[in-house]
Amino acid sequence: MRPVKWCGLAMAVALTATACGGSSGERGTGADGGPPGRDGFPVRVADCKGTETTFTAPPRRIVTSNAAALEMLLRLGAGDRVIGTGFPPGKGTLPGELGARAAEIPVLGTAVIPKEKLLGSGADLYLDTFAAMGSMGGAGDAPTDEEFKAAGIRHVYLASTACAPTAKTPQRDLSAVEGDLIRLGAVTGTAPRARELVADMRAKVGAVRKAIGDVPAGQRPGYFFFDFDAGTKQPMAVCNRQVANAVLTQAGARNVFGDCDGDFEPVSWEDVVARNPDWIQLGIRDRGDAAANARAYDQAAAFLRTFPATKGLAAVRNGKFLRIGSERTTIAGTRTADTVAEIAHALYPARFKGAR
Predict the structure, then answer these.
(1) Of 45, 149, 286, 326, whose Cβ has the fewest other Cβ atoms within 10 Å?
(2) Among 310, 312, 296, 161, which residue's Cα sits nearest to residue 235?
């Protein structure tokens, strides 16, 4: 999926970098330009265009654009304030109690939420994973800024995905994802929990870095993220501004399309063959059913094994496939750290012997 090129939710909160390519040595500010009050409010959030949104208290009625934004709020402990979502998580996507709570959230749209339904939802915050979702269908009639304002809905984005297309520098670590969590924690009044989630992510990625950090860049295996659901006629590459580039880099892989600036870019199968990846991730989108996901992975692998341009690739002949879903690789969330670990364990099994 290729979002329209906007940036969003870019308040810097003492992290090392933001998805918009700038340093975040600054801290969040109060509405008057000074430091936030004792309870963290007011909080002023600026998007990548410089437009600011001020929160004097946590939002009470939140609508999320998709499962990724919903999951972040659930993990932050703000799920009881979510009154609806688009692109709901499939059954079994989220584990245990988290999945049960997600299933209770009203679905306002199985894909992009219709404009009228979103504006009439009664929300006071719309959390958008992308500034617009033209390639996902139905975003052509997305509400304007003026319409959001008239409906009393503040509209903010996840910076790591919404800002990616126009970011000034590549995403090579998960600081942009961490930034989204910290900012959402500030906005929803769940800052302590946000810090816990970030610490857990850093511990997982740190363990990977400790195991493979000494592998020279030139010896890291080439890796191609095959977005099967984007179509097989012309492959879609993940470029260096995409969250996936950070995931692959931290996992010790070399994104074979890491030299293209932007988030996603259509390429040719000749380009893929020329890059000759050592590993290929079968990036399918969650079908909401384990059996359906397994069939989709099988179909993606079968295509690569039978397609004339790819069947001769060493990665294909040797079955160097990873079956890891698109969402947890290309969209912000705490599970991006788990994806880093999963890829690293597959690429460097000897370095994780004895690891759980």
Answers:
(1) 149
(2) 310
Quick one: which of 51, 44, 7, 48 has its CA closest to 27? 44
Tell me which residue of 101, 102, 100, 148 sits closest to 128, measured CA to CA.
148
Contact status, residue 330 vs residue 285, Cβ threshold 8 Å: no
Burial of 10 (0-12, 13-18, 19+ CB in 10 A): buried
- Tell me: the pLDDT tens digits for 211-222? 999 999 999 999
Using CA atoms, how far apart are residues 315 and 25, in angstroms rounded to an integer?
A: 42
Pairing of strands 52-55, 43-46: antiparallel
Residue 28's pLDDT is 43
Give the integer Cα–Cα distance in Å for 87 and 76: 19
Unique residue bearing structure tokens 């999963």: 342
**pLDDT averaged over the chain?**
87
Q: What span, in angstroms and rounded, lies between the C-alpha atoms of 132 and 134?
A: 6
Q: What is the DSSP letter of 352?
A: G
Spatial distance between the Cα atoms of 243 and 167, rounded to a whole number of angstroms: 11
Instruction: Indicate the DSSP class of residue 29.
Output: B
Residue by residue, DSSP assigns 285-310 as: PP-SSHHHHHHHHHHHHHHHHHSTTT
The confidence band for 25, taking pLDDT boundaries of 50, 70 and 90, is very low
Residues of the chain within CATH 3.40.50.1980 domain(s) are 43-189, 215-352
Distances (CA, A) of 311 to 94, 146, 235, 297: 34, 52, 15, 16
In one-letter notation, the amino acid at residue 71 is E
User: Does 3.40.50.1980 match the CATH number of domain 215-352?
Assistant: yes
pTM for this predicted structure? 0.87
Question: Comparing 213 with 22, which gets the higher pLDDT?
Answer: 213
What is the rounded distance in angstroms from the CA atom of residue 186 to the CA atom of residue 188?
Answer: 6
Tell me which DSSP letter residue 6 carries.
-
In this prediction, residue 85 carries a pLDDT of 97
CATH class in words for 43-189:
alpha beta
Spatial separation of the C-alpha atoms in residues 121 and 103, rounded to whole Å: 18
